[in-house]
Amino acid sequence: MAEKCGACGPGYSTPLDAMKGPREKIVYLPCIYRNTGIEKPDYLATVDIDPKSPHYCQVIHRLPMPNLRDELHHSGWNTCSSSFGDVTKKRNRLILPSLISSRIYVVDVGTDMRAPRMHKMIEPVDVFWKCNLANPHTTHCLGNGEIMISTMGDPSGNGKAGFILLDGKTFEVKGNWEKGSNIPALGYDFWYQPRHNVLMSTEWGVPKVLAYGLDPADLKTGRYGRYINVWDWTTHVLTQSIDLGEDSIPLEIRFLHNPDAAEGYVGCALSSAIHRFYKTENGNWAAEKVVQVPSKKVEGWMFPEMPGLITDILISLDDRYLYFSNWLHGDIRQYDISNTRKPKLVGQVFLGGKIPRDGPIVVVEDHELNCQPEPFVIQGKRVQGGPQMIQLSLDGKRLYVTTSLYSAWDKQFYPDLVKEGSVMLQIDVNTEKGGLKVNKHFLVDFGKEPNGPVLAHELRYPGGDCSSDIWI
């Protein structure tokens, strides 16, 4: 299947075709040393996840960056299924923006898929001068061959939404995608859908405010996000801002994969809610809350109430299931979204979090659980942190998860995670009726890395996945 698609151009013709793709055998993860006390550069790890391999669950290659304290975060492709059918394009470069340094690395994964090598480095000054932007976050490949990267701020660390355009061949910074004077104060993630002439972007917070942790004094001051920002895909102009509530912090946003669908979901971290966004009859866009994770009343923590803190969401390629992680509560959830307006909880598993029953935090009121969950231990290792970044196999049967959110917040909320390193886990998914079960034979322990414990973040498959490919 991969060879057939490769002959047609990168990726797959439809999301359902992608579900028939080959099983994942390796995965790439950015590994971060910033804020760990270890003065080593971040690196891109290649992990063998082929059960038939003698190196199963092992890091088989490490590509260190040339600089310290970049804070690698998310990654994306030079081209993807949006260019399916173009035989001149290959998915052979992984784009690695640095959230803090604002460098952008272009990694060659085509020459040797199992041993990536550096192809090009874009220095921050190019981004600063050509775009007046900084703190790049999400990368998406465009059907026209360009690469677009969303940003969170300006070169001074103030909040500012924007989008960097890279040339898909030379990887030179071309300039800004956005046009007009009406620019949102905050940026973060984005998704686009040309069939509906729209791009949706979200908001985290002011970079210089969140760079070293979460200060409660910064809440209710407009320094954290609350809007889905709606852009006209053709004119590149902001047309709407949909208010999801003060300090809701809408992070990851996903359209349904079917390119005809004019709806999707966004996960709000601090309000711990999932909102469905959709196109109205008059052509505007609106949002409605469809899932609310109740906060837990607690003692022994920085706040009297603990939100779930939804940090990552995914939609299966057949648009049947929605997944998300509650980084603080410690659970991953699976919802049946056959009825997109009424998601139904069908799977849940706890993988750590702040509230295990033997910890220092006491839950005094809980609207969901009868008792605090047990500590999560796998292969003799107690997992620190909570489930954070997630990635679903193409066929939807395996969900991979890592436990690091962002080094400064890891250090603040889970200091033992920074000391011991993050982990990568696998959850088996029941795709017929719903249901999640931890694979006890799968563990990648990033606490055992050669230069010391490291924080592994986002997961990316070489052949594309449900959070990097967009069908147009």
From TrEMBL:
SUPFAM superfamilies: 3-carboxy-cis,cis-mucoante lactonizing enzyme. One of its GO terms (biological process) is protein transport. GO terms for cellular component: cytosol; fibrillar center; membrane. Keywords: Acetylation, Cytoplasm, Membrane, Nucleus, Oxidoreductase, Protein transport, Selenium, Transport. Gene3D superfamilies: YVTN repeat-like/Quinoprotein amine dehydrogenase (2.130.10.10). It is an enzyme of class 1 (oxidoreductase). Pathway: Organosulfur degradation. It is found in: Nucleus; Cytoplasm, Cytosol; Membrane. It is a peripheral membrane protein. It catalyses: methanethiol + O2 + H2O = hydrogen sulfide + formaldehyde + H2O2 + H(+). The keyword Nucleotidyltransferase does not apply. One of its GO terms (molecular function) is selenium binding. Catalyzes the oxidation of methanethiol, an organosulfur compound known to be produced in substantial amounts by gut bacteria. Selenium-binding protein which may be involved in the sensing of reactive xenobiotics in the cytoplasm. May be involved in intra-Golgi protein transport. Belongs to the selenium-binding protein family. This is Methanethiol oxidase. It comes from Pelodiscus sinensis.
